[in-house]
Amino acid sequence: MVNIEEITNVTEYEELAKQRLPKMAFDYYASGAEDQWTLKENRTAFERIRFRPRILVDVTNVDMTTTVLGFKISMPIMVAPTAFQRMAHPEGELATARAVSSHGTIMTLSSWATSSVEEVASTGPGIRFFQLYVYKDRNVVAQLVRRAEKAGFKAIALTVDTPRLGRRESDIKNRFVLPGHLTLKNFDGLDLGKMDKSQDSGLATYVAGQIDRSLSWKDVKWLKTITSLPILVKGVITAEDAHIAVEAGAAGIIVSNHGARQLDYVPATISALEEVVQAAAGRVPVFLDGGVRRGTDALKALALGAAGVFIGRPVVFSLAVHGETGVRKVLQMLRDEFEIAMALAGCTKVSEINRSHVETDIDRIRIAARL
Ligand SMILES: Cc1cc2nc3c(=O)[nH]c(=O)nc-3n(C[C@H](O)[C@H](O)[C@H](O)COP(=O)(O)O)c2cc1C
């Protein structure tokens, strides 16, 4: 077992998790869809963005706190929903919940968690969002939303990019199925907690059977009739959809390509962010997930208009290696990196981070066109 003190960045956890986890589990966590072009692009697009730091600013105190949907959090880095966390560690989502609340930030619990909303709530206080997949059976959805509300979850992140499951080829090859001792805990009582083996990815087969492919914007309005919780629309990557999301009453937008696990060859989320921010025009906050592995990535996203970012894989990989302590470590590393990045860019508050702090390829083209 590697000594936790020796780990210096978030990315190191991927290789360590690979050594520790059964192949089927690691592949499920790591893979993207088909050619995995977008998976790579989610990272390389961050690498193409450069900073324009401001110097000689007094950075004795750097305040990373911010407010999301009215909740004050310690930094604009939050946790995205990732399914089946007990496949990484026996304490699964409970360990994540404890780690995230110890850092004073927000955890989003997946519909497909291997711990129920009530179990996660029982870990103690914390600001938590519930990610929703819409099942064909709307009674199931209504019940689940009510349970999340009762358990104290503060918002619904409605995932809108998964009418079918993207083709993740290693899951197809591995005939991925949830290990026999685990269930989709939120659905246990509804007889939908088990995933059967199939000639395909077992998850793809489950989705094809249960998830509502007909989901459309009118369902966002329906969802608003069954809950008073704010709804974040997760999976918007165009200005067109950002406009509709605001009109449909979304309280916020998450620019996400599902960690590159759905439609391959969509842009990196950091490349799509700015058009969504412009379309939202300050009416609702815009968040981003996908490829965030450094504090500098968070700073780039905020400079391009995001109100905060979420991380997915780093949580499951660190959970696999060091459990709750690993997730705490990931959040600590990102916090430390973000603080230094803010200081070196000359920002003492999150509200000071703005578009002038970064330069993108588009800026270069615009400047060249003016010459
Ligand atoms: C293993 C894994 C499981 C995921 N499960 C869900 C899920 O249940 N619901 C959902 O909306 N998104 C899910 N996602 C997508 C994440 O919420 C998020 O969009 C993505 O992981 C962010 O990219 P990153 O992993 O590069 O940080 C999952 C992603 C991964 C990697």
TrEMBL record:
Enzyme class: oxidoreductase
Cofactor: FMN
Record's catalysed reaction(s): glycolate + O2 = glyoxylate + H2O2
Tagged with keyword Flavoprotein: yes
All copies of domain FMN hydroxy acid dehydrogenase, residue ranges: 2-363
A Pfam entry, by short name: FMN_dh
CDD domains xrefs: alpha_hydroxyacid_oxid_FMN (cd02809)
Keywords: Flavoprotein, FMN, Glycolate pathway, Oxidoreductase, Peroxisome, Photorespiration
Subcellular location: Peroxisome
This enzyme's EC code(s): 1.1.3.15
Spans traversing the lipid bilayer: none
PANTHER family associated with the record: 2-HYDROXYACID OXIDASE 1 (PTHR10578:SF107), S -2-HYDROXY-ACID OXIDASE-RELATED (PTHR10578)
Protein's recorded name: (S)-2-hydroxy-acid oxidase
Organism: Selaginella moellendorffii (Spikemoss)
Classification lineage: Eukaryota, Viridiplantae, Streptophyta, Embryophyta, Tracheophyta
